[in-house]
Amino acid sequence: MAPAFRWALLNLIILPFRPKRIAPAYEQIWLEEGSPLLVHSRALREGVSQRLGDAFCVDLAMRYQQPDIHSALLRMQQAGVQKLVVLPLFPQYSESATGSAIARVEEEATRIGDPFELIIRYDFNDDPGFIRSQAETIRPILSNDTWDHVLFSYHGLPESQIRAVQGCLSTSDCCDVNYKPGNRCYRAQCFGTSRALAESLDLKPDSYSSSFQSRLTREPWIKPYTDFVLPDLYKEGVRRLLVACPAFTADNLETVEEINIRLRDQWAELGGAAFALAPCVNDSQTFIDAISQWAVAMAQTTAPDSGPPISAPSQLQ
Predict the structure, then answer these.
(1) Which of 14, 38, 55, 207 to pair with 64, CA 20 to 30 A apart?
(2) Topology annotation, domain 128-277
(3) % helix / strand / coil in the chain, to the nearest 5?
(4) CA 132, CA 114: separation in Å to the nearest integer?
């Protein structure tokens, strides 16, 4: 997404209207300790810090919220960190989320004098550690009941952003034909995540599908749309629906309110008999272990400088 368009979307469309519109939604999902996103992210940071021990300095930063990236980098600088491992907590790469977070880290690092050697992980959409972590949140729900269908619902993006990705074929089978390691097409990576999860969960090809939620503008967004998919599934005979949102690592407004409240209501209105939402990986021990392994491996990619390395998860809502 071009910087000018991203700025306009955020400052002219989303921010002026979103607070009033989502205030009631936040009231429904708010935890005693705060927002689900912040609560789970802080718990993840603490778990990774304990797992890595004193050899690493671990911090948490967010693109548009507190704790902010600039403050986190200052803390790292003051702690004497010289090697900075950056782990944006977006499984699938997109310019608007991952790219934006990385750009802000680089900008803020420059502002304070470029004190770090930056080592960046851009995605982990089908990494075995992430797939194992997400499958573990889904498997108990699958085993405790009989479900007709599993729907993997991902955060949506404008079609124009996907077409701008080099190598996008813009055909119906593009995400199968064009998916390969290193491909950073967001839509292709989402379908890759679904396939990896389906294999891990032993799902039959006709028992799961993928869709995209959270459209923000009137321009075409990547399809199929989650709220459009539900009537189709019902017409096909699906009555018991299990949904997972593997575009997120922490439960948040989109998962807890948009999916577990609004989409659940839509399914009930259609006549669906059962609905369940699998949790995100949050601060599960399996995901903590995966992140810790990534951080250690990344920190060893070049000769270490003096001072401890850092694993700094960064998340955007």
Answers:
(1) 55
(2) Rossmann fold (3.40.50)
(3) 50, 15, 35
(4) 36
